[in-house]
Amino acid sequence: MSEPIPDTILAVDHLSMRFGGIVAVNDLSFVAGTRQITALIGPNGAGKTTVFNCITGFYKPTGGRLRLTREGAAEIALERLNDFRISKQAKVARTFQNIRLFPGMTALENLMVAQHNALMLASGFTFLGLIGVPSYRAAEKRAIDLSKFWLQRIGLLDRADDAAGNLPYGDQRRLEIARAMCTEPALLCLDEPAAGLNARESASLSELLLSIRNEQGTSILLIEHDMSVVMEISDHVVVMDYGVKIAEGSPQHVRDDPKVIAAYLGADEEEAIAVMESGT
Amino acid sequence: MTAAAPDKSPATRAPGIPYILKKALISAAVALVLFSLMIGIRTEAGPTGQLIYWTRFGELFSLVAAVFGGSIVIELARQWLGPPGTRQLIPSSVQSGLAFAGQFAAPALLIFALLVPVIFYNQRYILDLSILVLTYVMLGWGLNVVVGLAGLLDLGYVAFYAVGAYSYALLATSFGWSFWVCLPLAGILASLWGVMLGFPVLRLRGDYLAIVTLAFGEIIRLVIINWASLTGGPNGVSGIPRPTLFGIPLTPGEDGLAAKLGIPFSPTHRIVFLFYIILALALLTNWVTIRLRRLPIGRAWEALREDEVACRALGINTTTTKLTAFATGAMFGGFAGAFFATRQGFISPESFTFQESALVLAIVVLGGMGSQLGVALAAIAMIGGFELFRGLEQYRMLVFGVAMVLLMIWRPRGLIGHRAPTVYLKQAQAISSDLVKEGHG
Fold this sequence. Notes:
The structure holds 2 protein chains of 2 kinds. Chain A contains 12 helices and 10 strands. By secondary structure, chain A is α/β, with parallel strands linked by helices. Chain A has 2 domains: 1-91 and 185-280, 3-Layer(aba) Sandwich (Rossmann fold); 100-183, P-loop containing nucleotide triphosphate hydrolases (Rossmann fold, 3-Layer(aba) Sandwich). In chain A, strands 6-7-8-3-9-10 form a 6-stranded mixed sheet, sandwiched between helices. Chain A has a 4-stranded antiparallel sheet with strand order 2-1-4-5, covered by helices on one side. Chain B folds into 2 domains: 5-81, no CATH class; 102-410, Orthogonal Bundle (ABC transporter involved in vitamin B12 uptake, BtuC). Chain B has 17 helices and 4 strands. Chain B has helices at 5-8, 17-38, 57-81, 92-119, 124-149, 158-175, 179-201, 206-226, 228-231, 257-261, 268-294, 296-306, 308-313, 318-344, 354-367, 372-388, 396-410; strands at residues 41-45, 51-55, 237-238, 346-347. Chain B has a two-stranded antiparallel sheet. A two-stranded antiparallel ribbon of chain B has the order 3-4. In chain B, strand 1 (41-45) and strand 2 (51-55) form a beta hairpin. In chain B, helix 5 (124-149) packs parallel to helix 11 and helix 12 packs across helix 14 (318-344). Chains A and B meet through helix 2, helix 3 and helix 4 of A and helix 11, helix 12 and helix 13 of B.
């Protein structure tokens, strides 16, 4: 590697998001390390998904900055890009809390759609592809190979030609991750990937995410409620409650933080204050 | 005995005579309310313009009695057949046989289409009808790109048909350009209008998109009517040149094709020539659409129909994807329009009413959204059906409407409801229509 790898891939700087009078995210700052798994946790309604929607361009933040620093690329201000450009130019991919596959298309087709931008270029914006030039055919074959690689990784190679909507729930979750990975992202944002999975499926998900970080070198930002997954794979944990960051650090550090315990156990006000004071 | 009868059969299947009678009475009451004004009272303008009316209670009561009796019969039949879905109406052997035959339907249809002018050479009526059917097949295939693949409900497709027709008519009559030069121009102009329609409706979905496209179709028609200095207004454009075969006209004169070939002239030559032009255009539409489906743009269209949010998350530019769908569909509409103009030799705004849009949309929906073969079959059934029932005069639309309702109950996702994957590793499996989304805008 000639160029130094930047330490942080994503720096969230004083991010705020208001919907009318409701403050969903208030002055949130944290960083996600390159080739690290950063988990964003917190009780329901803490504003985690809102942060995700700001990062992936589905919302325009009311205030603050989101800086993405990729290996060998200039720093990108994500808050200035909108929807599809985040994925296309900044190489940030995401999955959704409620699975958003293309149910009427096969597993393979889902992965091919994810490689749209690369294939569009190869097909000469359709015109060369229409007459079937050999370079496009080669590019399509490479795209199929990449899809096959990811289907193999998630153990769905046998079901490549099945409609995505026909796959079991756990397979759909993994397919959505594979689809996001087919865009060859630098940062992968996963919104509750373990939701609805059983213990065995959660364990295999952890394995998959670790291998994505180690083998592909993709940085991962993760929202998750399943603490076994979070504790097992995260390098860094950010805890949110009511739109603000209440703690941050290594999984062990966060687990023992009294403020985090208070937020999760739903302690009443005095107790919480007492816990917070004793904590600080 | 009657009281004991319901106990013998399962309780779920036999609700009993009081239930049946109650249901029949309700149906009869609804029929009475509906028909009392529609059938019961007949109004007409009298000789001096006053209103005269008379009653037809006999007909009214016979209809209500028919509804009452029919309701009982249907209810009994339902009990006899059992709840829906428990039995297969068609045995599996017949179904697999149908699937086997289905593989050969498309090639057989194509060969038949190629042979139509040979088989029906002396039947001008059938040749004309086939040209009409093929025009609608082409329009259906064109609209299928927008509605079936991209899932964008377009109620103003006739606008592009009109743009194509007027483009050719005006270019040919003003500059004397030949059909083959104007054909691509008509397609390009129509697709430009497709993009122009696309821009304002990008943010709209579902019903709102449908309303705006509907309005767009009407705007084009009204502009054509009112811009009389260019389009001739309601009088239309006449004297549109006929297509030539590499510059050789199909006329009885000295330099006509018949004279050059040394065969006796027949007006059927031109009809056959037109038939093959529209067949070639329709097949071109089909070929391009099939190719496009397997290209990234086609997959993006279908992905857009399935889930627009996910498309954006994958870095697909939904704006250009929608615009290309509109432009492609419009281009085929423009080709069909240019052909229509050259076939008719005369066009006027009357040919481009909303009814045409509705008919083409009905063909696409009836055929099974996204299915090329389904659209072709639906066009044959719709346009052919129109002609078949022509003898029934006023009942034609009624029969037709009932047939469509029944078909939609029987096959809610169209004649060919399943989707074929665009790429596969081992085996292409048809995807059930239950999984495929219709798109929402």
